[in-house]
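Internal tracking record. Fields below are filled automatically when a chain is submitted to the structure queue. Please do not edit lines marked as system-generated. If the sequence contains nonstandard residues, flag them in the REMARKS field before resubmitting.
Queue: standard
Priority: normal
Entity type: single polypeptide chain
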Amino acid sequence: MILSARTISERLAESGCFPADAVRTDEPPVRSDCETGKISSPPYKRKEPGRHLVISPFAPESLQPASYDLRVSLDMVLPRSCCTLVPSLEWVEIPGDLAATLRCRSSYGRRGVIISAGFVDPGFRGQLTLCLVNMGREDIALKKNDRIVQMIIHEVQEGGMLYNGRYQDSHGAIDAR
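SYSTEM-GENERATED OUTPUT FOLLOWS
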């Protein structure tokens, strides 16, 4: 099952990432307590680490009907015919009962950008490294905060096994280890 905007909002409220009263049935949350802009560590105190969905800093405009748009953390260029590692602005924590698929937003797909390595395991926490390939005819400039990738969050049936790999607690763009 893919989580809706309402369910994503409710799960984020459970984490304390933004107030529960910001969750409405008719529209996305309007403000976030996690908008510190700090990426070096989670910008709030978690109630129970590894048990809640976290997206920080959260941006209401990034919440879509069935996904959340991840943003670019710095100004950069996607050279044509090249794979570029792009760090997401957001720190994410995926609990054991969820996983995420990453898809390039269609506005960039129309320009020839594709994403590889587009899956986030249950239990992952850190900044996401977006592996973007520009198959278009020209270089593409990205600005900090540009929404480039959709994170589609899925429920994991009978989840329990958590990611504990070498990219846990990542900061910035991480090369293959």
